[in-house]
Amino acid sequence: VRHRLNDDWAYGNDPDARPWDFQAEECALRACVDRFNSRRYNSNAVRDPDFEPLDNCWTSVLGRQVELTEEFKHHYEIWLQQEVFSASVDWDQLLCTNVS
């Protein structure tokens, strides 16, 4: 894919190359990239919640206030027993840096 549609330098060494054959594909790719950029970075566009950027920074996520429901507060100790205390953790596997 050429950087710009008028960049023909990439095809200059090949006498059989016909860059105009790929123009339709390049235009379609450019349209998709432009649509992504406007959806992602244009602040005036109507935002689809499915395409909103996620905050993956652990410091800001852990610093957020979380509102717990009354039902969760009532059953908190049961949740701790079932989900935290009874779960076994293989710390060696967790701390292992090899990803296979």
From TrEMBL:
One of the GO biological process terms: cytoskeleton organization
Pfam families: DUF3402
Sequence ranges assigned to domain Far11/STRP C-terminal in this UniProt record: 1-56
GO cellular component: cytosol
UniProt name for this protein: Far11/STRP C-terminal domain-containing protein
